[in-house]
Amino acid sequence: MFLRTVSAAIVVLLVCACQPADEFQLEELFRLQYQETKINKGENIRIRFNAVLSDRRCPIEQNCLVPGTAELQLVFWKGARRESFVLQAGAGIQIHPVAGYTVVLHDLFPPYSLRNPPGKKDYVAVLQVLQGTDSCIDNTDCDTRDAFCRKAPGECAAVGQCAPRPEICPHVWDPVCGCDGRTYGNACVAASNGVNVDYKGECAPQYCWHNDQCGAEAYCFFRECALETGVCQPRPQVSDCPRLWEPVCGCDGETYANRCIAAARGASIDYPGECKNRSR
């Protein structure tokens, strides 16, 4: 049930006329126009793009700090059972479990434009209906901490399935780069940490200029404070750092108890010892 690349699948949607226009197939991406209903006769299910409740997506004429979202109301029937729900377009892939299935919203067309705002009849949602309710976007969608959102290698942004984390892994060095940008000894070790594989081999350096480019779990490390380019490195948790007073002066001019604490705070090291003219 792993997804194919979304962009390629959308191209197929635009050129393929392999089934009646009012039907859809499980696992396959399909288009649903505003107030259109499509059916799957074999499963006795229907889905309707019922309404656009709001559209606050960033206009294509602007560069927004926040992309914004559009709210869509969908209606799903399994036999006589009916359920309506709301999904947000523009916030990445969205999922909703319903009646033993998972509805996936991939995209909404057209993009929002200030010059030519879309009318309601212009909207087209790109959807997918999956069998079962164990589909997920990330680990938070899985019920237990012993599970993770397993995805096919290289499909970091795709929909996955909740699966148990391995408890025992072989002691073999067959490095993989995880979807979190960290290198793991092998794919099993990555999975045991709840991480999917982006590609085989060690992660290539991710160059940076400031911490914001490295995500919440990493920071931009500079070998020397005067350098303009650093490399993203994992950011340790303060709770995992030793309680040792081996002070270092950070590139930000602040004194830190030790190198680990500095890294946890996202600071590179200028020199050992307390910062001059700074109190502890």
Automatic annotation (TrEMBL):
One of its GO terms (cellular component) is extracellular space. SUPFAM superfamilies: Kazal-type serine protease inhibitors. Residues 157-205, 226-277 form the Kazal-like domain. This is Kazal-like domain-containing protein. It comes from Desulfatitalea alkaliphila. Pfam families: Kazal_1, Kazal_2. InterPro entries: Kazal_dom, Kazal_dom_sf, Serpin. CDD domains: KAZAL_FS.
